[in-house]
Amino acid sequence: MKSYEEINEKIRSGKAVVLTAEEVVALGREKGVKHVAETVDVVTTGTFGPMCSSGAFLNFGHSDPPIKMQKVWLNDVPVFAGLAAVDAYVGATELSENVGFDYGGGHVIEDLIAGKPVVLRAISYGTDCYPRREIETEITLADLNQAYLFNPRNAYQNYNIAVNSCARTLNTYMGILLPNMGNATYSTSGELSPLLNDPHYRTIGIGTRIFMGGTEGYVAWEGTQHNPMQARGDNGEPLAPSGTLALIGDMKKMSTRYIRGSYYYKYGISLFVGVGIPIPILDEEMARCVCIGNEDIYATALDYSVENRAKPNFGRFSYKELRGGSITINGKSIPTAPLSSLKRAREIADLLKTWVKDEKFTLTAPVKPLPTDHGFKPLNIVPPTGAMV
Amino acid sequence: MAEQRVVLTFHRWQLDKPVTYHLVKDYDLVLNILQAKVTTEEGKLVLGLSGLEQNVEKGIEWLKEQQVIVEPLATGLSVNKDSCVDCGACTAVCPTGALSFSDDWTLGYDEEKCILCLACETACPVRAIEEKF
C-alpha cells in the first residue's frame, strides 16, 4: 500500500518509478503484478482521438461603447452566446455558415491555439447599459481574458468497433465504412487508454490533474453519457462504451500538436483532443488493472448500417486482434483501421512520464469519486403535455 | 519483363476505339486498369502495363500513332507530415495498402502501390493528403 503523499514525495525527490501504460504491461508479463505493485509508483496513459463533445468558453472583453452580444460568430461559425454580455462557448461540431463542412468550431479552436487572428462578429438588440447593436473586429487568443476548453465528454472508456453490412458506403463519425463489411474501424488507444487503466475509477475522479492538449488540465465532472454500469469482463474492463470524463484546461497554454480540428466526410466537424492521465499504483489491485494488456481488453463490433439506436452486434474482439490488422466475422476476414492515433497517444504518455519524473508533476487524489451506480438512459419520444409556455 | 504505369488521354472522337484489346492481342501486354473516366470532353485511362520490355515500348509507340496522349503516371499523393496525426482513417479506405502503418504506427505511403483512387483524400480528417502534380 502506498499513499498519494508517499508517491508525491518520491516524485518531488526525483525517486519515483514512472512507466507508461504499455511499458507496465510488458513488465507485468515478465515479473508479475506483485512486482509491479512493489516497484512502480506511477503509470502514464494517453489518448489522441476525435472527441465531438468538446468546446471552449471565451471572454472577449468589452468594446466601447459596450455590446450585450446576443448572436456571435467566429470566422462565420456561430458560437453560443446565451450567457453574460461578452461570454461565449464555441462548440467543436458547429459548422461555418459560409463554407459548411469545410470549417467549424473545432477549426476555430485550433486556429485560436495556433495564434491566428479570428474574425469576431456579433449583433444585439441594444440595452441602456449595452447600447451597441453590432460589432465586427478581429481577435487572437492572447487578446481574450479567459479561454478554456471545457469538454463535456472526453476519454471514453472503450468504444465500439464499426462495421457496415449493407451494400452502400456509409459516411460516419467512425470514418468511411465500406460496404459488405469491407472494413472495421475502432477508436481507442487500448491498453494505453486512460480509463481502461483504472476501470473502476479508483484514482481518476473529480479534481484529478491530467495532461490536456499539451498543458495541465483537470477532470471537472463525470462526462456526459458516463455509463459505469456497462457490461464488463471478469477483469473489470468494460466490453463497450462506458465511463467518460468532463475535462477543463487552459486553452492559452495548449498546443495544436495536441488539439486539432477534424472533419469526417459527410458527417461533420470534430476535435482531436490529446489527453493523458497519471495513475498512482496505490496497491496490488491498481497494479493488476494497469497490467491488463490489449489481448484482454475487448470491444464490440456493431453494424452501423442498421439505423435503429440498438444496432446488432457481431461479437467481441480484443485490441490485440484489432491492432493485428484484421478480424473475422461470419468467416470473412475484415481489415481493421484505427481512428485515434496510437503514435500520438504514445507521445502523450511519454511526455506525461517526463513531466512526472523531471518536472515534478504531482498526483492528486480525487476530490470526489465518479459515480459508479447509474446507467445511460435513452430519450423517449412522448406526446407533449403542454407544459411549454 | 517490364512494367510501366501510364495515363492515357483520348480525344472525344477516339472514345469508341477498343485500344486495350490491341495492347493485349498485338503486343501481348498484361493490363491493369487502375482508373477509367469518360467526360464530355475526353477520356482518361490509367493503366498498368506489363510484358516484355520491347513489347511495352512498341505498345506505347502504337498508342501514340493512334494519337492517344501517353504520359507516365508521374503523380502520386503528397502526405503533409506536419498536418498528419497518424490516426489511420485513410488506411480504412485504401484498397491497395499503399497507405499503411509502420511498426511504430507512423503512417507510411508506398507510391508503387498507389492507384490514385483518392479515397484517402476524402477520408482524411485533417486534410493532410492531396494529389501531387
Provide the descriptors you would attach to this structure in a database record.
heterodimer; A: 389 residues; nine-stranded antiparallel β-sheet; four-stranded antiparallel β-sheet; 7 helices; B: 133 residues; alpha+beta; Alpha-Beta Plaits; 2 domains; 3 helices; 8 strands
Task: Describe the overall structure.
The complex is a heterodimer of chains A (389) and B (133). With 389 residues, chain A is α+β, with helices and mostly antiparallel strands. Chain A has 2 domains: 4-51 and 150-358, no CATH class; 61-144, no CATH class. Chain A is built from 7 helices and 26 strands. In chain A, strands 3, 4, 7, 12, 17, 18, 19, 20 and 21 form a 9-stranded antiparallel beta sheet that branches. In chain A, a hairpin with a 2-residue loop joins strand 25 (326-329) and strand 26. The model of chain A has no long low-confidence stretch (mean pLDDT 97). Chain B has helices at 19-27, 53-65, 119-123; strands at residues 2-11, 30-38, 42-51, 69-72, 77-79, 99-101, 107-109, 129-131. Chain B starts with a strand and ends with a strand. With 133 residues, chain B is of the alpha+beta class. At the A-B interface, strand 3, strand 15, strand 20, strand 26 and helix 7 of A face helix 3 of B.
